[in-house]
């Protein structure tokens, strides 16, 4: 039998908010095949992850523009229009956050998010007012699924891993948390999360 959940810890991207580089670059690259090539070779999620992990944006952009000078304007768009990769909320999860908060459940988050992009985005989302603390990879220069970020978060949140439920859409992140003793929910949609939270008597 699982331990009682004292706190719920959310991922942000693709759990609370929609995120995809296509939301921005689909506006700038009308040809579908060219768009897929660009996202597979130039502004890739793997490259973006370096920024999430703390690498400086100006270094990344300058290096990439040397590699792909014909795409310099698009690489600049990554740096200046990142908010357009977040078109809105993931349906249903914010309502669950409100219900958890209404029940007095302590809420936290661990997010892979570049520090300057987070500073720009965080104030625009009122749901974050319910979160006691949010550990941001770009600020810590440690990204999920590294064990260090989960250990840092557990220490900062003040709860034992076994007493926290970690919610993330990324299987590697979920497995990393599980190995460290966290209770976990591999997020697919708000309906399944609602069922899990209900089964744990959290909502």
From TrEMBL:
Q: Does the keyword Ribosomal protein apply?
A: no
Pfam families documented for this protein: Hydrolase
Q: Which GO terms describe its molecular function?
A: (S)-2-haloacid dehalogenase activity
User: What sections of the sequence does the record tag as coiled-coil?
Assistant: none
**E.C. no:** 3.8.1.2
Give the top-level enzyme category. hydrolase
- List the InterPro entries hit by this protein, alphabetically: HAD-like_sf, HAD-SF_hydro_IA, HAD_sf
The superkingdom of the source organism is: Bacteria
Record flagged with keyword Hydrolase: yes
Family matches, as PANTHER family: ALPHA-D-GLUCOSE 1-PHOSPHATE PHOSPHATASE (PTHR43611), FLAVIN MONONUCLEOTIDE HYDROLASE 1, CHLOROPLATIC (PTHR43611:SF3)
The entry's protein name is: 2-haloacid dehalogenase
* Taxonomic source organism: Novosphingobium marinum
Upper classification of the source organism reads: Bacteria, Pseudomonadati, Pseudomonadota, Alphaproteobacteria, Sphingomonadales
């Amino acid at each position: 039998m699982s331990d009682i959940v004292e706190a719920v810890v959310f991922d942000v991207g693709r759990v609370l908010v929609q995120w995809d580089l296509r939301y921005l670059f689909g506006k700038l690259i009308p040809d579908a095949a060219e768009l897929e090539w660009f996202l597979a070779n130039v502004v890739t999620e793997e490259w973006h992850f370096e920024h999430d992990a703390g690498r400086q944006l100006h270094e990344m952009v300058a290096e990439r523009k040397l590699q792909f000078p014909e795409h310099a304007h698009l690489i600049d768009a990554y740096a200046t229009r990142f908010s357009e990769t977040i078109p809105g909320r993931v349906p249903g999860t914010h309502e669950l956050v409100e219900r958890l908060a209404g029940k007095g459940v302590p809420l936290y988050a661990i997010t892979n998010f570049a520090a300057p992009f987070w500073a720009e985005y965080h104030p625009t989302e009122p749901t974050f007012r319910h979160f006691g603390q949010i550990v941001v990879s770009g600020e810590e220069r440690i990204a999920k699924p590294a064990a260090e970020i989960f250990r840092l978060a557990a220490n900062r949140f003040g709860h034992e891993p076994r007493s926290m439920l970690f919610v993330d859409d990324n299987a590697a992140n979920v497995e990393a948390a599980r190995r460290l003793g966290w209770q976990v929910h591999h997020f697919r949609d708000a309906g399944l999360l609602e069922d899990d939270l209900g089964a744990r008597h959290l909502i």
